[in-house]
Amino acid sequence: MQANQPPSAASRYNIVAPGGKAVAIAALTAGTCIVAFAIVLRFLPPPAQTQPGVWVAALGLPLMAAIFYCLARRRSVSLQNGVLIIKAGIHTRCVPAARLELERARIVDLQEQADLLPGRGTFGASLPGYQTGWFRTHKWGKGFYLLTDRRRVLWLPERGGPHLLLSLEQPQTLLAALNAMAPRSYRD
Prior knowledge:
There is one protein chain. The chain is an alpha+beta fold. It contains four helices and ten strands; from the N terminus they run βαααβββββββββα. The protein has helices at 20-43, 46-49, 52-73, 171-181; strands at 11-13, 75-80, 83-88, 91-96, 106-108, 121-127, 130-137, 141-147, 153-157, 163-167. Strands 5-9-10-8-7-6 form a six-stranded mixed sheet. Strands 1-2-3-4 form a four-stranded antiparallel sheet. The longest helix is centred in the first third of the chain and has 24 residues, at 20-43.
């Protein structure tokens, strides 16, 4: 938080934009579905081409692609009234700052800290360079991820619960704001 902001003011923290691979794969998948539908439609006999189900599918594919695109763009991290609010795809996670183990929190490079990489998804979305939602790791158990870049990731463990991994442009800014709200019991 900035020095002149009241403690109850909301602060937003920028997410690292996902790489081009995730967007390219989403666009390629949507395009492939549309082309496949056009091919199937071409070879259907004329009476089948006028069936309502065929046209519902034809209109549904672009609609689903648009919904996926909008959900992939829904990502934010903010700190408001002592609560960390993370919006990632269809997920919204609200964690009181007091529940975070800030004495263990740190900024990590997931290439070096492979035990924190998202493993099996329990309720999450995953594309190359973009993981959001709930995943499990072998060592750390369940975690909530908003990953768009793996080089500078803020790891925030919760007391007796899951952990959070966030790809922020300036992870140290959020960590400093959290520490200002609930100081560590000891300093490193």
